[in-house]
Design goal:
It is a single chain. The protein has 208 residues and is an alpha/beta fold. The protein has a single domain, classed as Aldolase class I (TIM Barrel, Alpha-Beta Barrel). The protein is built from five helices and nine strands, in the order βββαβαβαββαββα. It has a seven-stranded mixed beta sheet with strand order 3-1-2-4-5-6-7, sandwiched between helices. Bound molecules: iron/sulfur cluster. Iron/sulfur cluster binds next to loops.
Length: 208
Protein backbone atom coordinates (compact mmCIF):
# COMPACT_ATOMS: atom_id res chain seq x y z
CA UNK A 1 0.00 0.00 0.00
CA UNK A 2 1.40 3.42 -1.01
CA UNK A 3 1.37 6.49 1.17
CA UNK A 4 -1.64 8.61 0.14
CA UNK A 5 -0.40 11.51 2.30
CA UNK A 6 2.10 12.43 -0.45
CA UNK A 7 1.67 14.89 -3.28
CA UNK A 8 0.89 14.52 -6.97
CA UNK A 9 1.16 16.98 -9.87
CA UNK A 10 -2.36 17.51 -11.21
CA UNK A 11 -3.21 19.80 -14.12
CA UNK A 12 -6.97 19.59 -13.67
CA UNK A 13 -9.93 17.51 -12.54
CA UNK A 14 -13.18 17.78 -14.50
CA UNK A 15 -16.62 16.19 -14.60
CA UNK A 16 -18.33 15.29 -16.84
CA UNK A 17 -15.85 14.03 -19.40
CA UNK A 18 -17.71 12.46 -22.34
CA UNK A 19 -14.92 11.58 -24.73
CA UNK A 20 -12.25 9.66 -22.80
CA UNK A 21 -13.74 6.30 -21.91
CA UNK A 22 -17.20 4.75 -21.72
CA UNK A 23 -19.96 6.94 -20.29
CA UNK A 24 -19.78 10.18 -18.31
CA UNK A 25 -16.52 10.13 -16.40
CA UNK A 26 -14.38 12.14 -14.02
CA UNK A 27 -11.19 13.19 -15.82
CA UNK A 28 -7.93 13.62 -13.92
CA UNK A 29 -5.11 15.13 -15.98
CA UNK A 30 -1.74 14.72 -14.36
CA UNK A 31 1.08 17.17 -14.94
CA UNK A 32 4.49 16.41 -16.42
CA UNK A 33 5.60 14.15 -19.26
CA UNK A 34 9.18 13.19 -20.19
CA UNK A 35 8.26 11.21 -23.32
CA UNK A 36 7.76 14.23 -25.63
CA UNK A 37 6.03 12.49 -28.54
CA UNK A 38 6.27 14.43 -31.80
CA UNK A 39 2.85 15.93 -32.53
CA UNK A 40 1.56 15.75 -28.93
CA UNK A 41 -1.45 18.04 -28.48
CA UNK A 42 -0.83 18.35 -24.73
CA UNK A 43 2.56 20.05 -24.75
CA UNK A 44 1.40 22.51 -22.11
CA UNK A 45 1.30 19.54 -19.68
CA UNK A 46 4.92 18.47 -20.22
CA UNK A 47 6.51 20.56 -17.45
CA UNK A 48 6.77 19.09 -13.96
CA UNK A 49 5.67 22.40 -12.47
CA UNK A 50 5.66 22.16 -8.67
CA UNK A 51 2.95 24.82 -8.56
CA UNK A 52 0.53 22.04 -9.58
CA UNK A 53 1.34 19.83 -6.57
CA UNK A 54 -1.69 18.67 -4.60
CA UNK A 55 -2.20 16.15 -1.86
CA UNK A 56 -3.06 12.69 -3.20
CA UNK A 57 -5.81 12.41 -0.63
CA UNK A 58 -7.18 15.83 -1.57
CA UNK A 59 -7.43 14.84 -5.25
CA UNK A 60 -8.95 11.45 -4.43
CA UNK A 61 -11.58 13.07 -2.22
CA UNK A 62 -12.45 15.61 -4.93
CA UNK A 63 -13.02 12.74 -7.35
CA UNK A 64 -15.08 10.80 -4.83
CA UNK A 65 -17.26 13.87 -4.33
CA UNK A 66 -18.62 13.53 -7.87
CA UNK A 67 -19.86 10.03 -7.08
CA UNK A 68 -22.21 11.47 -4.47
CA UNK A 69 -24.06 13.60 -7.03
CA UNK A 70 -27.48 13.04 -8.61
CA UNK A 71 -25.95 11.48 -11.72
CA UNK A 72 -22.86 9.57 -10.58
CA UNK A 73 -19.99 9.11 -13.03
CA UNK A 74 -19.52 5.83 -14.87
CA UNK A 75 -15.88 5.86 -13.87
CA UNK A 76 -12.64 7.82 -13.77
CA UNK A 77 -10.08 8.46 -16.50
CA UNK A 78 -6.51 9.31 -15.50
CA UNK A 79 -4.54 10.94 -18.30
CA UNK A 80 -1.71 13.34 -18.74
CA UNK A 81 0.85 14.39 -18.86
CA UNK A 82 2.29 11.00 -18.08
CA UNK A 83 0.90 9.08 -15.08
CA UNK A 84 3.87 6.70 -14.98
CA UNK A 85 6.42 9.54 -14.73
CA UNK A 86 5.16 10.03 -11.16
CA UNK A 87 4.35 6.40 -10.59
CA UNK A 88 4.45 6.28 -6.79
CA UNK A 89 1.98 9.14 -6.54
CA UNK A 90 -0.20 7.68 -9.30
CA UNK A 91 -0.24 4.32 -7.57
CA UNK A 92 -1.24 5.97 -4.30
CA UNK A 93 -4.08 7.78 -6.10
CA UNK A 94 -5.32 4.58 -7.77
CA UNK A 95 -5.17 2.74 -4.45
CA UNK A 96 -7.24 5.52 -2.89
CA UNK A 97 -9.85 5.16 -5.64
CA UNK A 98 -9.97 1.41 -4.95
CA UNK A 99 -10.44 2.07 -1.24
CA UNK A 100 -13.50 4.17 -2.17
CA UNK A 101 -14.91 1.30 -4.23
CA UNK A 102 -14.31 3.05 -7.58
CA UNK A 103 -13.58 0.11 -9.89
CA UNK A 104 -13.89 1.57 -13.40
CA UNK A 105 -10.62 3.49 -13.73
CA UNK A 106 -9.11 3.96 -17.19
CA UNK A 107 -5.45 5.03 -17.36
CA UNK A 108 -3.71 6.51 -20.40
CA UNK A 109 0.07 6.16 -20.60
CA UNK A 110 2.64 6.82 -23.29
CA UNK A 111 4.79 3.93 -22.05
CA UNK A 112 4.49 0.38 -23.37
CA UNK A 113 3.28 -1.49 -20.31
CA UNK A 114 4.15 -4.86 -21.89
CA UNK A 115 7.81 -3.96 -22.53
CA UNK A 116 10.35 -5.82 -20.38
CA UNK A 117 10.62 -2.86 -18.03
CA UNK A 118 6.88 -2.05 -18.33
CA UNK A 119 4.54 -1.82 -15.38
CA UNK A 120 1.79 -4.18 -16.62
CA UNK A 121 1.88 -6.33 -13.49
CA UNK A 122 1.77 -3.28 -11.24
CA UNK A 123 -1.03 -1.42 -13.00
CA UNK A 124 -3.29 -4.41 -13.73
CA UNK A 125 -4.69 -4.77 -10.18
CA UNK A 126 -5.31 -1.02 -9.94
CA UNK A 127 -7.09 -0.18 -13.21
CA UNK A 128 -10.09 -1.48 -15.13
CA UNK A 129 -8.30 -0.68 -18.37
CA UNK A 130 -5.15 0.92 -19.76
CA UNK A 131 -4.43 2.55 -23.12
CA UNK A 132 -0.67 2.47 -23.63
CA UNK A 133 2.28 3.28 -25.92
CA UNK A 134 3.51 6.60 -27.30
CA UNK A 135 1.61 8.73 -29.78
CA UNK A 136 3.03 8.34 -33.29
CA UNK A 137 2.56 11.16 -35.73
CA UNK A 138 1.66 9.81 -39.18
CA UNK A 139 -0.11 6.69 -37.88
CA UNK A 140 -3.63 8.17 -37.74
CA UNK A 141 -6.58 6.08 -36.58
CA UNK A 142 -10.37 6.13 -36.69
CA UNK A 143 -10.63 4.54 -33.25
CA UNK A 144 -12.23 6.78 -30.64
CA UNK A 145 -9.91 5.69 -27.83
CA UNK A 146 -6.45 6.36 -29.24
CA UNK A 147 -4.43 8.92 -31.12
CA UNK A 148 -2.31 6.62 -33.26
CA UNK A 149 -2.75 3.13 -34.63
CA UNK A 150 0.11 1.60 -32.61
CA UNK A 151 -1.56 2.21 -29.24
CA UNK A 152 -3.29 -0.68 -27.49
CA UNK A 153 -6.18 -1.12 -25.06
CA UNK A 154 -5.93 -3.68 -22.25
CA UNK A 155 -9.01 -4.42 -20.14
CA UNK A 156 -8.07 -6.01 -16.84
CA UNK A 157 -11.42 -6.32 -15.05
CA UNK A 158 -13.68 -8.98 -16.61
CA UNK A 159 -16.91 -7.19 -15.66
CA UNK A 160 -15.91 -4.25 -17.89
CA UNK A 161 -14.77 -6.19 -20.97
CA UNK A 162 -18.08 -5.88 -22.86
CA UNK A 163 -18.47 -2.20 -22.06
CA UNK A 164 -14.92 -1.33 -23.11
CA UNK A 165 -15.22 -3.58 -26.16
CA UNK A 166 -18.30 -1.66 -27.32
CA UNK A 167 -16.62 1.68 -26.70
CA UNK A 168 -13.46 0.58 -28.50
CA UNK A 169 -15.46 -0.34 -31.63
CA UNK A 170 -16.95 3.15 -31.95
CA UNK A 171 -15.43 5.57 -34.42
CA UNK A 172 -14.14 9.00 -33.54
CA UNK A 173 -16.93 11.52 -33.00
CA UNK A 174 -17.07 15.14 -31.92
CA UNK A 175 -14.65 16.47 -29.34
CA UNK A 176 -16.09 17.84 -26.12
CA UNK A 177 -15.63 21.54 -25.51
CA UNK A 178 -15.65 22.72 -21.91
CA UNK A 179 -15.33 26.16 -20.34
CA UNK A 180 -13.06 26.10 -17.30
CA UNK A 181 -12.89 29.51 -15.67
CA UNK A 182 -11.75 31.86 -18.45
CA UNK A 183 -10.39 29.04 -20.61
CA UNK A 184 -12.01 27.02 -23.37
CA UNK A 185 -10.60 23.50 -23.58
CA UNK A 186 -11.22 20.59 -25.90
CA UNK A 187 -11.48 17.14 -24.35
CA UNK A 188 -10.95 13.97 -26.31
CA UNK A 189 -8.61 12.57 -28.91
CA UNK A 190 -8.82 14.26 -32.32
CA UNK A 191 -7.96 12.81 -35.68
CA UNK A 192 -4.38 13.74 -36.47
CA UNK A 193 -5.63 15.86 -39.37
CA UNK A 194 -7.65 17.97 -36.90
CA UNK A 195 -4.86 18.39 -34.37
CA UNK A 196 -3.75 21.74 -35.81
CA UNK A 197 -7.06 23.36 -34.86
CA UNK A 198 -6.72 21.95 -31.33
CA UNK A 199 -3.22 23.38 -31.00
CA UNK A 200 -4.52 26.77 -32.17
CA UNK A 201 -7.12 26.66 -29.41
CA UNK A 202 -4.43 25.84 -26.85
CA UNK A 203 -2.27 28.72 -28.07
CA UNK A 204 -5.26 31.07 -27.88
CA UNK A 205 -5.76 30.05 -24.25
CA UNK A 206 -2.07 30.48 -23.46
CA UNK A 207 -2.15 34.02 -24.89
CA UNK A 208 -4.97 35.09 -22.55
S1 LIG B 1 2.96 10.48 -23.68
FE1 LIG B 1 1.04 11.63 -24.02
S2 LIG B 1 1.36 13.63 -22.98
FE2 LIG B 1 3.39 12.64 -23.20
S3 LIG B 1 4.20 13.49 -25.13
FE3 LIG B 1 3.21 11.52 -25.63
S4 LIG B 1 1.10 12.12 -26.23
FE4 LIG B 1 1.99 13.86 -25.12
Amino acid sequence: MSDSSGTILVHMVHFPVLTLGPGRRVGVWLRGCSIHCEGCISEELWSFDPAFARGVDDVACEVRGFFGGDVPPAGVTVSGGEPFDQWEATRALLERFASFGIRDVLVYTGYDISAPEGRREEIAPLAAAVVDSPFKLGEDTEAVWKGSENQTLSVFRPEFKDMYGEWARSAKGALQVAVLGNRVVSIGIPRQSDAGAIMALAEMNAAR
